[in-house]
Amino acid sequence: MKHKNVPTKITSDVRKVETSLPDHFKWHAWIVFLFGAFLYANTLTHQFTQDDAIVIYDNMYTTKGIAGLKGLFTKDTFFGFFKEEGKAKLVSGGRYRPMTPAMFAFEYQLVGKHPWLGHLINILMYGFLCFIVYKMLLLLFCYKDKSESNLYLVLAAALIYACHPIHTEAVANIKGRDEIVSMLCSVFALYGIVKYFDDGNIKLIFWACLVFFIGLLSKENTITFLAVIPLSLYFFRDLTLKDAVLRSLPLLVPTIFFLLIRSAVLGNDFGGPPMELMNNPYLKLVNGVYVPFDVNEKMATIIYTLGKYVQLLILPHPLTHDYYPRYIDIMSFGDVSVLLSLGLYLFLIFLIISGFKSKQIIAFGAVYFIITLSIVSNIVFPIGTNMSERFMFMPSLGFAIVVGYLLKKYILDKFGNRAFFILLGIIISMYCLKTITRNFVWESDFSLFTTDVKTSVNSAKVLNAAGGALTTKAFSEKDEVKKQEMCKQALIYLNQAVRIHPTYKNAYLIMGNAYYYIKEYDNAVGAYENSLNIDSDFADARTNLAIALRDGGRQAGEVAQNLQKAEELLRKSIDISPNDSETLRLLGVVNGIKGNHMEAIKYFEKVIQLDPKNASGFLNLSNAYRNSGDPANADKYLQKAIELDPNILKNHAK
Questions:
Q1: What is the mean pLDDT of residues 403-415?
Q2: Among 70, 311, 415, 579, which lies 20 to 30 A Cα-Cα from 564?
Q3: Domain 459-578 classification at class level
């Protein structure tokens, strides 16, 4: 029977669901809060990791503190890191998520480049999110049925959501706060709209719209709740779907406002999909050129990843922060795993259809999961990677609802409280153990990259990141044996990265660094040249190439006594970096040894032109003039060297 005239007020004993709970249920919300927060207490002393550089400590707006807020709200989210137009839109459509970087700016204003405050806020906000999730589920599921079994369903779903290990990326990584704030605001908006329907308090509409707008400014995923909220009203209140949609229409106001701002900042040109593998996983190498997947390959690969998400929700092991190409290989509809994934989602659709009219909780959990997954599925919008665990932060609540419902229906209702709590306890214990141990991996970039490279063995991105982490650590390592070991391991990873992605310029750059640190200068030069062959404007590779050529020239002259090779490498270096005084000095030395004293004088004169207070430069110039048979100039420049450094002759004698 349809209810055409549904009152906005309901009887007080139903409306006051939360205040009429049995005593032993009244503390459940706070238990969920503490549970969620304490699970991540071990991240409080962690460092910045992963993309924290982009939005926090290497972002020119965030590091200005409050003074940088204008830049954060008027530019693409990536602009403050790349600091130039064009690069900000490495992913299709760009990103406009100023809210959490604004929070980071305030934190930077207070404590500077110290991550503890960011981690503390993430921990507390996550605990509060779990608290609100519990309150929201209570409001929905216990509207009509406040039975003990229904209350335990709410508790089970909230606890499973709170402890799920797939959330570690969003909470343990400070940058992941965009996921937390987006989810928190989305759930708050849902709570506010439903409470408005129940209580008729018009202020709740205003607050729901405000927090929804904040959620949109945090991450675009919030927009999926435009569908979730009316469906929640439909499933858990006596409303037709049409009426539920009409009561949710006020949320269009902040949505349209957000889209107008986003359009004003980023424009409406989404451009084509990027043709760089690290920003578009649906590319393949054909005859040395990257081309897009065909339709079947792309859809099969997407369907496989959707199944992978469900697998990680059920059995979250192994976890990794990196699912870039080719962690997920090019799939086809001939792969059994693709067909299983397709079958799984067809089953979810069947659950939704069969339970939609009768408004079953399991159907709601399934439809919530699919709706919130849609925006990160790569079907609706390209996201720049195959998949990511943080993309499950919002959809995982649907999984928690389904599991809570199954525990209630098939364990609690049939076997009683004891069996229910034993099974729930086993699930939670396993998830908690995985969450806590996974948190430790997020302690630093080094631990994260060198751990996850063992899981994401075919991801060019994490292979590159692990190689970079090892070479960075090797740079400051005093023990030469350890330095050699770290660089050699880095080179294994980096060579694998370029086998997967032959045009990965950054991998060649880091490879060059690793060779440089172990003094294999010829190999370093080759790696830098490969990087420049891919991108001739790559400034870092050009700078490092000049240094490698210079030090390779020094090695050829001083160690191998090969003056011809030394001069050849040094000339290449000076062509790239004409004002490098050390390269000029070495060219002067080489020419002096070869007897080309006038050439040596030319180079030493350039050295003192660049640095008029360089006592050693004047001494070298003096010696070159003396060797050329010009004692007058030799004495003049010797005197200048002694004026700048009275002990120079004594020091050089040593």
A1: 97
A2: 579
A3: mainly alpha
